Amino acid sequence: MRRRSLLLSVPAGLVTLAACGNDKSGSSKASESPSPSASVPSSAPSPKIVSGPLPEITAGTKFGEKPTVAKGSGAPSKDIAVKTVIAGGGRTIAENDYVQAHYLGQIWDTGKIFDNSYDRKAPLIIQLSQGTIIDGWRYALEGKKVGSRVEFSVPPTWGYGTQGNAQAGIKGTDTLVFVVDVQNTFNSKSSAQGRTVPQNNAGLPEVGTNTDGAAPSITVPKAAAPKKLVADYVIEGDGPVVKAESTVLVQYKGVLWDGGKEFDSTYQRDTLASFSLQQVVKGWAEGLTGKKVGSRVLVVVPPSLGYGDNPPPGSDIKKDSTLVFSVDILAAM
User: Fold this and answer.
1) Is residue 250 included in any domain, yes or no?
2) Residues 182, 200 share a domain
3) Is residue 9's pLDDT more than 50?
4) d(CA 241, CA 284)
5) Which of 36, 102, 125, 146 is deepest in the core (most CB within 10 A)?
6) Residue 185's closest CA among 131, 124, 265, 246?
């Protein structure tokens, strides 16, 4: 099983996408996640941000390269020390944004690496929100720009506290050192970006092509619903291809084929959604697998690949409903 580095939050609205009776739940994977995920919300006061001391990066000094970081020298700061090693020119990171980044983490005193994404050859996707990630990351990365390499140290108060993280070999007295290469950042206004693809099939729903962060329109035709899965590009991006085991970050909107009523939307909740394709209905898993990151995809899910005669309790989805989605694939890992 591929090791995951950080916990990914799943918004409550995704109950309408969860696969019924699927034994591949996220609980086992979450237990494999070491640092710097946060197990409980922190009540620590806001820290002071200082410029050092920080250990030297002795090799792998380019953006995107796995860095080699010297062991800490002397006593670390009691505050959060932050240094922008390489200044990027992209969008500025804000609180509650999702960040896509490569990173390495090690212990100040020993120089022991407890986790890194470079060896996994897959960047992490994590939300910078309280309770999702350790506070040191939130404070160190807020205000930084995409394309930046940031080095920072995190004392226990804004890391794992006095309990440490035994799974990762982190004691309650350890100060942690991170190097983070910020590849991208996303918020609730993020949209697909790419080539608009003609929608010429009058028997399929038509999806809006706006990329301003507002919810696209979905116009369902007065026709019989297709019996098989439909997964067509509306906007074709140029990112990597989504794999069957990928975790994706998306914007989406779902309506019923019969009547066109909206039953779920990240746009309405004003937050993105992140989840594994192994944890959602088969129509989503099959429809998004093979599609490119950066794309908007029309996904029409027949009952056999959706909820059939067992729709989610409390939803507007009735038995044997055909579901229509517009899905913007923002990132994948």
Assistant:
1) yes
2) no
3) no
4) 15
5) 36
6) 124
Phi, psi of 256, rounded to the nearest 5 degrees: -85, 140
Over the stretch 20-78, which tens digit does the pLDDT of each residue have?
433 333 333 333 444 466 655 566 788 999 999 999 999 999 999 999 999 999 999 99
CA quadruple 307, 310, 311, 312: dihedral sign: negative
Q: Report cis status (omega within 30 of 0) of the bond before 303.
A: no
Q: State the CB neighbour count (10 A cutoff) for residue 268.
A: 11
Q: Both tokens of residue 137?
A: 């990351």
Contact present, 259 and 324 (Cβ < 8 Å): no
CB 77 within 8 A of CB 160: no
* pTM of the predicted structure, to 2 decimals: 0.85
Separation between Cα atoms, residue 182 and residue 151, nearest integer Å: 11
**Strands of the chain, DSSP E:** 49-50, 57-59, 68-69, 80-86, 98-107, 113-116, 124-127, 149-154, 176-186, 195-196, 206-207, 218-219, 230-236, 247-256, 262-265, 273-276, 296-301, 323-332
Residue 319 and residue 297 share a domain = yes
Q: Is the separation of the CB atoms in 218 and 174 below 8 Å?
A: no
